[in-house]
Amino acid sequence: MKKWLVDTGPFVSYLDRTDSSHTDVAACLDGFSGQLMTTGAVVTEVMYFVSDAPEGPLSFAELIARARVQIVDMLQPPRIAEAAALMKKYADTPMDFADATLVRAAEQLGIVEVLTLDRRGFSTYRMSKGRGFRLVLDN
What we know:
Layout: E1 3-6, H1 8-15, H2 22-30, E2 35-39, H3 40-50, H4 56-66, E3 70-72, H5 77-89, H6 97-109, E4 113-115, H7 119-124, E5 134-135
């Protein structure tokens, strides 16, 4: 089964029909039949960004339930330390905590495909053995 990691931007864009990336993201997500995966840090970030919309948080909760998004636990102390080390390594890019948890989840799960709007970051980030990411929206 095909698996994609999903970053914050696509979730926010999917929910906001006025977003410039909405059409492309919606086509990707609506046409995908594999397993979507993300991290708790991404969920937190999305909830923050959609919190001003009256139905934003509820719409996001319904989306992840309907799409059966698997949320990978990267919030245990050793994983947090690993994410912080990655943030330091990529400070010039920069890398935020949610991105760092996605990179660590990719390494842990062996997933290289990421649905993201952060082309600069995920074109730069590498997993521990130097493997890069395939950006879903670029394929």
